[in-house]
Amino acid sequence: MVNFTIDKNKNTPLYIQIFNQFKKYIENGSIPQGYKLPTIRSLAKELGVNNITVINAYKLLELNGYVNKKVGSGTYVSQDIKQNDLTREDIKALEHGQILLNKNMINFSSSSPNPELFPVDDFKIIINKVLERDGGYAFEYQDTKGYMPFRKSICEFIKKDEIDIDYEDVQVISGGQQGIDVVSKALINFGDCVFVESPTYSWAIASFKSRGAEIVDIALNKDGIDIDELEEKLKIFKPKLIYTMPVFQNPTGISYSEDKLKKLIDLAYKYDTYIVEDDFSNELNFSSNKHLPLKSYDKYDRVIYIKSFSKIYMPGLRLGFIVSPKNLVNSFAEAKYVSDLSTSGLMQRAFEIYLREGIWKKHIERFKKIMRERFDEMKYLLSGNKYFEVNIPDGGFYFWLKLNDDISAKKLYLKCIERNVSIVPGNMFFSNKVDDSHIRLSYASCEADKMKSGISTLNDILKDIHNEENSEYIPIV
Amino acid sequence: MVNFTIDKNKNTPLYIQIFNQFKKYIENGSIPQGYKLPTIRSLAKELGVNNITVINAYKLLELNGYVNKKVGSGTYVSQDIKQNDLTREDIKALEHGQILLNKNMINFSSSSPNPELFPVDDFKIIINKVLERDGGYAFEYQDTKGYMPFRKSICEFIKKDEIDIDYEDVQVISGGQQGIDVVSKALINFGDCVFVESPTYSWAIASFKSRGAEIVDIALNKDGIDIDELEEKLKIFKPKLIYTMPVFQNPTGISYSEDKLKKLIDLAYKYDTYIVEDDFSNELNFSSNKHLPLKSYDKYDRVIYIKSFSKIYMPGLRLGFIVSPKNLVNSFAEAKYVSDLSTSGLMQRAFEIYLREGIWKKHIERFKKIMRERFDEMKYLLSGNKYFEVNIPDGGFYFWLKLNDDISAKKLYLKCIERNVSIVPGNMFFSNKVDDSHIRLSYASCEADKMKSGISTLNDILKDIHNEENSEYIPIV
Q1: Where does the HTH gntR-type domain start and stop, copy by copy (chains A, B) (predicted)?
Q2: Alpha carbon of B134: minimum distance to chain A alpha carbons (Å)
Q3: ipTM, 2 dp
């Protein structure tokens, strides 16, 4: 059925080689759910390794949720391991509202605000200013690291988040996804290990996997990543990086406590790895709790901070930046060059003015006011519901719902679509686990006046499914 | 000194595994120039393989220029194998004129035209038209494959090159380099083989290598790629793709004959591989010879056509497109999504108008006239020179000079810089060979009135070097 090969000359310990191969075969379905693994002795003999090597590999598989041990019976592949992805098209559609949502659709799926909220008028003026001032030079190749005045204005801009850096540490990118891709190119080689929060943003995983990385999940608690699990796994694997969204996480809305932020940085230092911080919405804090970026605590220069301007300003800018640890600046520049040479000069020059002249503050004020209304309305509408539990975030765009009574998220999703409500089923945020009990609701693209009707429909459907499920199981006696 | 491992379970033939490892060690300098390889018998014994396996591996190394056989003595690593790259910073600087060339510098190095030639005024009008018409929608995420009206206008546009396709085959990209990167992501996995012309564009190689590809060179003759060498190597390796620039190649200016274009496509079909055609300047034909893109001959749907708008229109657009074989359309879309989600909507919408309304024709006419003057002047200035041979291209931006009398290209390059003339030494266009006898001159950024003085300086320096070299070797008797 499957073929195991181990290479004793490799640096990777043998038990991790065995673990990686099981992982691959389980994920791609070559080893099906419920399959009983070979006994320790037989596999050890077949591979010519010690029993303890196989024992350690099986322990790792268990630790990562791939297998369950049944006492006295053996080790079995988990029934809830993910073996088939949702199609990529679905994910794309849901993440960015790229499917033509019909006009009457109530949109709880898009991560980006409706275009009516974009600061287009200001931009029109600024773009013309740039064209007037710079002419053809706005359309030349720009420095790969970014247009220097723009990099300088970024340094001023992020002082608001208590991040104090030199423009030499700034790498301009064409949006957050390119940031992830550039970091992947620079740091990840075939066979490297990457840690991610579970659940997390699926297209970050796609980028790491595209470089041949092995993905290891770390559970997310209500106050951030599970530090104990993280350290336990750091001792075993040697990840090239830990991918995180410490503020208003996608999809859970969770923010790390200050204590966890500090511990995370200490662990990165202790185990000699890097943390990628993906920040797309830290401006949207609706609580009285301070939520500074992880980067502002980065005393060991271990945080690669990726900032996107897409969600809070406009996706179409295709702009963002990386704040890089000193020793990675040139690697990121080279990766950026290989990717697309440089980012649009026109947009960099326009956004430079936007930042330098403080025009962004006006937009944020207005934007935050509108989002605050939506946030409060969502919070109100989602409270005290018996069909799900919801974790109220301190800000950002996302509410993450855990469905009660075994209600199927997939069924809910499909029925919502029928009734013109679009939501995101939780399954797509898990890298290797099947999840059918969570959904993500975003209000980025949903006006406050539509929410009531949307959540009311959601409730009707939940009630129907709940009743259906219960009636199905009433025994006829 | 080095470690060889071979894996008999792998699909790759053993002699190719051995070849690949020698190649790696020779390229990274672990096995130095002039080193004598182990005898066939001793290596075969050490690796536990047949003599014939080692013989085949050594033959391959010889075929690819890594080693020379000396009869009765053994096999030695070539003296002219490339073991140290020029620094990446140098290459970047030279390719795109990103170093701050001092104002008085005569620029024969840049590949992109001076900004004074960009159609900025037309674009200013069009951008405002788009902002007026589409408002915030111009700044939304666009479809990953591209803004549909733009894709449709591209289909009309390339009918000029006798390429007739459906908009479904078009993938919009943010410039030619991203096209290469997207194709690499979609097709190349760690250990795959890629064929390139020798010499070729170094940042294509960087992209392939970043995916873990093994690069194999194919010589370029005056009428295109060496078809016999290509077929010989196709029989041995199974390349994922063959990267080519069939019209006005970078750096040589060479264009393929129609016969070679057809043969290339037949070979791709016969050996089940793809050809990447990188086209950045086919509009600049100054001859009466027809130079249609390879894609227009693509009867087997084997050509991945990458078109950049950077060199002929404006680099700052960050726009281009891939015409994809039907079966690769979705792979490219996924790779594009992982790379940066989508390309700027504003630029796509603006260029859609530019193409649809035929405004590009006006620009090309003016642009071609100016480039023609420069081309003719260069041709005149470079003719009948005793220090180099030059191949006069049919169009494009590049003249490729072969220096006579062992004049060192590197020395020439350094002396030119001192005298405020910038040229590109040929070395950077070879993936594994040291070259010190070619230079590339581009007139993209060099006004006709500066050329005379630039070439005259070049000639002075050539004369000096030539005299120096000769005087050094006069024996004192």
Answers
A1: 12-80
A2: 10
A3: 0.86
